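re the bet — no i am not wrong, look at it urself. input seq straight from the record:
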Amino acid sequence: MNATPIATPDDMIKTLEKTKIYIMSELDDRAFAEYTTKATSFQIGIPVQVVAHKIYKYIVEENNDNKNIINFKDYAKLTVAFAEKHPDYFTGKTAQGMLKELQDFVAKTEKQAMTTKRNIAPIGNYNKPQSLLMPNTKLSNFLFDMSRNLTQLTALIVNNEKEPEITVKTQLSFVPLDMENVKIPKYITAYDRAVHDAICSIYAAGNNIMTTSQIYEAMTGKTTRIKKTLEKVDESVLRLMMSLVFIDYTDQAKSKGLETTNTTLKQNIIYCEGLTVNFPNGESSTGWKLLQTPTLYQYAKDIGQIITIDKSILSATNVNNADDVVVLKHYLLRRIEAMKNTKNNMDSKKILFSTMFSYCNISGNREKLRMKRDIVVALLMDWQKIGYIKEFKEYRGDKNKILGVEISV
């Protein structure tokens, strides 16, 4: 039941590197065997039923979560591994030649992986950021707000009401990564924004290579070795990698004095590559290599809207850095810095709890929300002690209901 190759081995490998191999149903033995033969350029002189059962079971059932599709790199690697366990299946001259090509291909990809490892792993020259840099633009406020939908081209008014109207056209979309068990996001969150700002801070300090632990420290001012916490940071980086943003800020750039006829960004919010290394003691470390300047950081830098927070303010609080605490802390810092900026002419120094919790994606019953209000109060008390703010108080509305906090900066 041998099949004639539909292309030369080199042509097939080049084609399949860029595409996917769709595995035929195990129930259709002939179709599966013929397709396997063509896809790998093999001519294996063994019964069809054996090929269908053994190779299918090893590659698809035992080593691939998705039963219908597998990328060529994995297929090649698993076929080579199968051949090591079953050398009697590959005794023919043609099969040996095709197997050698697959072995060379696997060796080449492993060499490339090792090169990436050498490029990412060394962190010896890392410049630890002493400040948290936060792109504080209306665009960022909208992009990371889960309640808004910017998946259609949207014109945003980005200046104060008293000035001539300036709009920025933007659109957010999401693309898949060629990875197993990674879902395409539907939105990016306030937590993703905190991770994003930490990456920008590390980049601005002169680093394009960083570990997940270093991102967490830049985000919170403190270190952690908690696996679940670091995994959440990694998941956030992946979402930012899958987030594509279009920004046409030509008019805004001109208003800031930039001599340009067109100023447009079209790229991933974070464009990087990552490497996870597992150690014999069960621990692991993930490194990230930025391949270009973070998009929203570049935009904020061009229009001069970046907040700088000293690291001491991040680490001054004794409140445990749970996920909700991180997003509340970053939200408060942005609002306080806006109050301190005299150019903003902000008459009100009040922050509604409802607005804050909505943006930070915090919900729950009355008791849970009371606990979150207590966290806000604890953060503000710590910042008052070190002189970051002068004082604050909770303010109430109808029926003596607590509505938010009023801050004196």
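see?? DSSP finds 15 helices and 14 strands in the chain. told u. also Residues 93-120 form the longest helix (28 residues). so pay up
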